[in-house]
Amino acid sequence: MTELAPHRGYLDRLAEGTVPFQRCTACGAAVFYPRALCPACGSTGLDWSHSAGLGTVHSVSVLFPRDAPPYPVVLVDLDEGFRVMSTVVDVPAEQVRIGDRVRAHVEPDGPRVVFTVLTGDGEGSRA
């Protein structure tokens, strides 16, 4: 069903502490950022789903603000098949690497999705 304001649906679900995305009912594509039409096939049949939050760093850039510590901006490929831009919060910026496995978390005061780097056992941070 077409949602007139898909961004509102995203924010509502994010505020509940989930990492929402849309799934096309026609072609099965994972859709992020929220839209009214599937970018793969043009269908209006987009249902909400929730990511498990696991993904892989696709790209990383470190920003160096004048009056703040450096921080990484990452593109993460989530296991459900979509990519998001965010940051990694648990390790120094220069330690984030392409290929790192990460877990998404919703910051309650944002709300926004941030990532932590997983250790070899898939738990916690390597920091």
TrEMBL record:
Domain ChsH2 C-terminal OB-fold: 48-106
One Pfam family named in its UniProt record: zf-ChsH2
Identification of the protein by name: DNA-binding protein
InterPro entries recorded: ChsH2_C (IPR002878), ChsH2_Znr (IPR022002), NA-bd_OB-fold (IPR012340), Thioester_dehydratase-like (IPR052513)
Source taxon at top rank: Bacteria
Domain ChsH2 rubredoxin-like zinc ribbon span(s) in chain numbering: 12-46
SUPFAM superfamilies for this protein: Nucleic acid-binding proteins (SSF50249)
